[in-house]
């Protein structure tokens, strides 16, 4: 390998931008590939809407872990604690452009279709050209929704709510948003911003929206300890995590009933949202304590300490509920949703079993009965996630060539300490989902992994520059 390292970055969303921003300019020659509409913001941060908010406060949205205030300082004074996704996209765009200038990066507005390993590195293929590199970072970004109800091609089906600027539906039409995660919340808020007057219903198997984030409370853990988790390496079970969580609730003086309530799944979805909002507004410690313990488990790499069987059981039985608590929405967002519930414009339903198209719309079947809707907006993201088509094709080429090994829970097998799936081939984002679980969607975890990977490649931890 020459003194200057030829680096290819595939994907230019948040993860790819973080890689570019972290690389040491005088040691690399960089090329960035992305066939999307721009470099910097991923699919959820495109321009066009100020309605949808990021679900983390600005103090936790820095792309530079060594400078936690980088984003907050970029914003300046007078900005709200939670900003719009569009504004965060502006930040990503600016960081990308400055990093590209600093590193003299070449940008290629094409998708990568194949990668080959050669004696002196890798060759990357687009539809029109080939490029040689010493190392590659795969940052393919988040997958769009999965069409689990086979509605593609029907007249009133919206396969993906993003970009929100294109979510233009007749204002009087009935709209059903399928899926109940943060993307569903974004879709509802965008429809509200556009003055939608027809009935909006959010429906999924559980009906449970993301929890509500408490940024006013600070939790100091009393019993939960990362060393204890790591000490169970080789024998860690779901029951161990349950025990750690329960012991922390007791130590904090929180009734265990408040913990069990989050996992019983017997509340009506709208009642659950109202209750969680009221808890946060009243300063109840249950939800922030759960989130703090979950953060500790993430830092302790609990997911990596499970075997694949335990991971599979967790994904099948607990992922849905846990994800609602670990990716909560801002209070302001919850208040807007409750206001829509109060007016009757919004309804939230669980028990979804089927959606059938017909000549004038769709029949939606739930365990509570059927209802009709004119439009369906899809936000479903099953586990394991369905990769974007470009990523799926690329994964096929990599595995067929024997360069990497598929993970049974999605994506690729990789070294969790370096994010390397093969020598010089680093994986971040959805393709790391099987090994890293929610780390592929948590910004601070992604930027931490980026620095590990860059450090492994260059042999020294580079410092971000302005």
TrEMBL record:
Entry-linked InterPro entries: FAD/NAD-bd_sf, HpyO/CreE_NAD-binding, L-asp_N-monooxygenase_NS-form
Signal peptide: none
A Pfam family that the UniProt record links to this protein: NAD_binding_9
Domain FAD-dependent urate hydroxylase HpyO/Asp monooxygenase CreE-like FAD/NAD(P)-binding: 9-142
Coiled coil: none
Entry superkingdom: Bacteria
Name of the molecule in the record: FAD-dependent urate hydroxylase HpyO/Asp monooxygenase CreE-like FAD/NAD(P)-binding domain-containing protein
UniProt source species: Kribbella antibiotica
Lineage of producing organism: Bacteria, Bacillati, Actinomycetota, Actinomycetes, Propionibacteriales
């Amino acid at each position: 390998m020459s003194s200057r390292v030829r680096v290819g970055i595939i994907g230019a969303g948040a993860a790819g931008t973080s890689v570019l921003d972290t690389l040491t300019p005088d040691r690399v020659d960089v090329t960035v590939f992305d066939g999307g509409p721009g470099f910097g913001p991923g699919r959820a941060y495109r321009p066009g809407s100020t309605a949808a908010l990021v679900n983390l406060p600005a103090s936790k949205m820095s792309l530079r872990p060594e400078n936690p205030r980088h984003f907050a300082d970029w914003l300046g004074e007078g900005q709200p604690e939670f900003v719009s996704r569009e504004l965060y996209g502006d930040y990503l765009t600016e960081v990308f452009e400055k990093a590209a200038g600093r590193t003299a990066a070449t940008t290629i507005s094409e998708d990568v279709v194949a990668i080959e390993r050669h004696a002196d590195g890798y060759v990357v293929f687009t539809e029109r050209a080939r490029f040689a590199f010493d190392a590659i970072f795969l940052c393919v970004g988040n997958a769009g929704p999965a069409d689990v109800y086979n509605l593609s091609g029907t007249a009133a089906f919206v396969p993906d709510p993003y970009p929100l600027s294109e979510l233009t539906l007749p204002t009087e039409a009935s709209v059903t948003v399928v899926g109940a995660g943060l993307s569903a919340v974004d879709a509802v808020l965008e429809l509200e911003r556009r003055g939608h007057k027809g009935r909006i219903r959010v429906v999924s198997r559980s009906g449970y929206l993301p929890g509500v984030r408490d940024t006013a409370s600070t939790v100091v853990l009393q019993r939960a300890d990362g060393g204890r988790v790591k000490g169970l390496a080789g024998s860690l079970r779901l029951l161990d995590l349950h025990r750690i969580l329960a012991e922390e609730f007791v130590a904090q003086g929180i009734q265990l009933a408040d913990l069990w309530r989050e996992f019983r799944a017997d509340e009506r979805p709208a009642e659950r949202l109202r209750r969680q909002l009221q808890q946060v507004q009243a300063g109840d410690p249950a939800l922030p304590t759960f989130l703090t313990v979950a953060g500790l488990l993430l830092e302790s790499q609990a997911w990596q300490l499970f075997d694949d069987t335990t991971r599979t059981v967790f994904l099948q039985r607990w992922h849905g509920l846990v994800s609602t608590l670990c990716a909560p929405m801002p209070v302001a967002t919850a208040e807007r949703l409750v206001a829509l519930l109060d007016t009757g414009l919004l309804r939230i339903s669980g028990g979804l079993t089927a959606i059938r198209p017909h000549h004038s719309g769709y029949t939606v079947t739930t365990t509570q009965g059927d209802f009709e809707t004119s439009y369906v907006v899809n936000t479903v993201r099953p586990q394991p996630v369905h990769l974007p088509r470009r990523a799926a094709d690329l994964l096929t080429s990599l595995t067929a060539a024997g360069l990497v090994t598929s993970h049974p829970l999605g994506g690729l097998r990789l070294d969790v300490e370096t994010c390397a799936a093969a020598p010089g081939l680093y994986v971040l984002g959805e393709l790391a989902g099987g090994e890293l679980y929610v780390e592929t969607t948590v910004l601070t975890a992604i930027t931490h992994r980026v620095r590990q990977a860059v450090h492994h490649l260059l042999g020294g931890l580079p410092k971000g520059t302005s």
